[in-house]
Design brief:
By secondary structure, this protein is of the alpha+beta class. 24% of the residues lie in helices and 34% in strands. The protein has helices at residues 3-16, 20-26, 48-51, 93-97, 118-129, 190-197; strands at 56-62, 65-71, 77-82, 85-90, 107-114, 133-143, 149-157, 162-170, 176-183, 200-201. The longest helix has 14 residues, at 3-16.
């Protein structure tokens, strides 16, 4: 079977069998890498600082938006955070045996502040993605632990056979916080959802707390 034919078969399988049971069979779950969901949950009356005590975080404040991206390190590692854009990744399994070998990361997560509004940005991105990707889950709502409402959609890119999950949240500053996950395993999983819910959009600036 040629590589092109193989990709067509895989695409057909993904589209026709995309259901919870099939997703469990398709992916090596990230739960072996990530901690119990309790660390991501903010219960009623539980301060965020305590709920996320064991997580690393990156705080970004831009004119159009601000966010705190929280992650468990390891397995996640911070690659860069500059000009409003933060990149995290989980190395491919091969990197453990051959560091700096150039393997494509198993997971990546990129957060950034962009212009526009969440719904329009998500709709435009979904329409563009549909030309080259299989839309697995069309736009659906997502809410962070802090009550930030957003929209997301999930897709599968045939070219390199990777899953994508894109989420968009409006910022009170007038822009959008966009978070994009990309991975070989399927991304419609509990741990990725918890990571998105741990995101804080427009967090309080401690330097301005108590000031008018």
């Amino acid at each position: 079977m040629s590589a092109r034919a193989g990709k067509r078969v895989l695409r057909s399988m993904v589209q026709s069998t995309y259901a919870p049971a099939s997703r469990d069979a398709l992916r090596p779950t990230l739960s072996v890498c990530l901690i119990c969901g309790a660390l991501f949950s903010v219960g009623c009356g539980t301060p965020a600082s305590r709920a996320y005590a064991e997580l690393d975080e990156v705080t970004v404040r831009m004119s159009l938006g601000a966010y705190i991206l929280r992650y468990l390190a390891p397995p996640w590692s911070l690659v860069s955070s500059d000009d409003g854009r933060t990149l995290l990744q989980i190395d491919a399994d091969g990197e453990r045996f051959s560091p700096d070998s150039g393997f494509t990361p198993k997971y990546t997560c990129q957060a950034e502040v962009i212009s526009g509004n969440a719904l329009n940005r998500a709709t435009q991105a979904e329409r563009t993605a549909a030309a080259e990707e299989s839309i697995l889950v069309p736009q659906r709502p997502i809410v962070t632990d802090g009550g930030n409402e957003g929209t997301e959609f999930l897709s599968f890119r045939d070219l390199d056979m990777r899953f994508l999950r894109r989420a968009y949240f409006d910022s009170e500053r007038g822009g959008v916080v966009r978070v994009v996950f990309e991975a070989k395993p399927d991304l419609d999983e509990r741990e990725v959802t918890k990571m998105l819910r741990a995101l804080s959009v427009d967090p309080e600036d401690p330097d301005l707390a108590g000031k008018e």
